[in-house]
Amino acid sequence: MYLTKSLIEGLRILGFDKETIKNISREKNLEEIFLSTLFLNYIIVLVVYILGLFAGGYSLQNREINMPVFFGLLIIYPFAYNLVVYGVYGFFGLMAELLDNKKNVKPLISVGFHTALVYTILVYVIALLSTINLVYGAFLLSAFALYFVYTMFLAISIVYNFSLNHTLIVLLFPLFVFALLLIVSTLIYPETLRNILSIFFV
């Protein structure tokens, strides 16, 4: 019941409902929504695992995916996903707190976990479509990234009641840090991504 309610609230947040964002940001208990996101991910992982067994494996661009590695990642994915959600929204919340010490990280994390429930389903849909057409999957992933940034912008603005300038500072600084880390890691370890991807294929 709580899972259904949280999914509906997540959809409202992603539909830019300001009142829902304000109400969710006032939630005191994060444990339930954390466990709901974890539970939903494990349910989807179980479905993906069973379908993979029946289908005899998955392939991407006519290349067979290494199923032991894939299933191993599926097992750790739900908890890792929750940690990433906590880290990302926590980082943006920390920027807001640094900008105004009267603000707190927790309200944005609460909003983040409600949206993460819906994002969970979207990520799996994009991953599924990517196995059919990688270019289309990449396009959807790019659209999802832009939508995420815009939703984050609205969430920061509404939760913390920031001006446009303050909201942009809170939004853009973490994005700049993420991009910088990605560029530096690519320059230092140019073959790392290729080596990681090679593990996924037979």
Q: Brief description of this entry?
A:
With about 200 residues, this protein is mainly alpha-helical. The chain has one domain (about 1-200). The protein has helices at about 1-15, 20-25, 30-55, 65-100, 105-130, 135-160, 165-190, 190-200; strands at about 60, 65.
**Which outline best applies?**
globular
Q: Please indicate the count of domains.
A: 1
Strand runs, count: 2
Number of helical segments?
A: 8
Strand order of the largest sheet: 1-2
Question: What can you see in these coordinates?
Answer:
By secondary structure, the chain is mostly helical. The protein has one domain (2-199). The chain is built from eight helices and two strands, in the order αααββααααα. It has helices at 2-14, 18-25, 31-55, 67-99, 106-132, 134-160, 164-188, 192-199; strands at residues 59-60, 63-64. A two-stranded antiparallel sheet has the order 1-2. β1 (59-60) and β2 form a beta hairpin. α1 (2-14) crosses α5 (106-132), α4 runs antiparallel to α5 (106-132) and α5 packs antiparallel against α6 (134-160). It is globular and about 55 Å long. The model has no long low-confidence stretch (mean pLDDT 81).
